[in-house]
């Protein structure tokens, strides 16, 4: 596939500027700002492209040294960049139901000989038992069992035995960050519901695709939450 053409990108920035209502007279600063926005989206897309392949390499048992060689950096550098940092989250930041869900995530990883927790593992873990995520999906008439079977079919068997300690992939770290932000807005510990919302908001990967196919995308989940104003937090977790 050929890389994006510069002229096409320039034209895209001009269109973005015009759609923003810059008027008939060329707005050079406006076009510069639009071009910066296009460039930022391209950088983010490029990062996602590499993140996705790093995640796939780890899911299939490739070492950090091999990945570092492919990226032209040291093993230490690539591991620091892509391995989830430890000790960032305190236990009190999470609802009790999270512990059970994480255990199921790890179980799915061990069963498929994966040494990282991807978004597929996260969704499988969230759907394993009754919790706030399952109840939110139920309010949309989305059965957890069938959705779990669907996402389990996307899990692949790795080339080596799973490690004793699991790292969250770049995508799942983004999901966790989103979940923490949502929980902070709610003034509550991070729950399974927050992780589910984070998966849907990510918009990429097998888990987000499975949720979208089940009509449980970000907008649908947000509407389902808004319909429960009288429900107490204790009843949901």
Automatic annotation (TrEMBL):
<dbReference type="InterPro" id="IPR004176">
    <property type="entry name" value="Clp_R_N"/>
</dbReference>
<dbReference type="InterPro" id="IPR013324">
    <property type="entry name" value="RNA_pol_sigma_r3/r4-like"/>
</dbReference>
<dbReference type="InterPro" id="IPR036628">
    <property type="entry name" value="Clp_N_dom_sf"/>
</dbReference>
<protein>
    <submittedName>
        <fullName>Clp protease N-terminal domain-containing protein</fullName>
    </submittedName>
</protein>
<dbReference type="GO" id="GO:0006508">
    <property type="term" value="P:proteolysis"/>
</dbReference>
<keyword id="KW-0645">Protease</keyword>
<feature type="domain" description="Clp R">
    <location>
        <begin position="91"/>
        <end position="231"/>
    </location>
</feature>
<dbReference type="GO" id="GO:0008233">
    <property type="term" value="F:peptidase activity"/>
</dbReference>
<keyword id="KW-0378">Hydrolase</keyword>
<dbReference type="Pfam" id="PF02861">
    <property type="entry name" value="Clp_N"/>
</dbReference>
<keyword id="KW-0677">Repeat</keyword>
